[in-house]
Amino acid sequence: MMADKVMTRDELAKYNGQAGQPAYVAVEGVIYDVSAKPAWQGGRHHGNLAGQDLTDVLLEKSPHGKRVLKDLPVVGRLAE
C-alpha cells in the first residue's frame, strides 16, 4: 500500500537524516525511508545524500539496483 503523502523536492530535502530528521530518498517518484539502514547512518551512503531523488544513481551507478528498495517503508510520492 502506497503512502498518500506527496512531497516536493524542497520538502524531501528536509528529510536528510541529520539533526534528528529521518532519512528519505526518492526513486522513480516513490519516497522511501532509509533511516533504519545502518549504511545510511547520518543521511549519507557512499557519497549520496538522503533527502534527494536518487533514481539515476540507483539505476545507473549502484551495483544493488532496485532490489534494495523492496523491504523499505514507502512514505509517499515525489511531486512532479
TrEMBL record:
SMART domains: Cyt-b5 (SM01117). Residues 7-79 form the Cytochrome b5 heme-binding domain. It comes from the Bacteria. Pfam families: Cyt-b5. This is Cytochrome b5-like Heme/Steroid binding domain protein. It comes from Limosilactobacillus reuteri MM4-1A. The lineage of its organism: Bacteria, Bacillati, Bacillota, Bacilli, Lactobacillales.
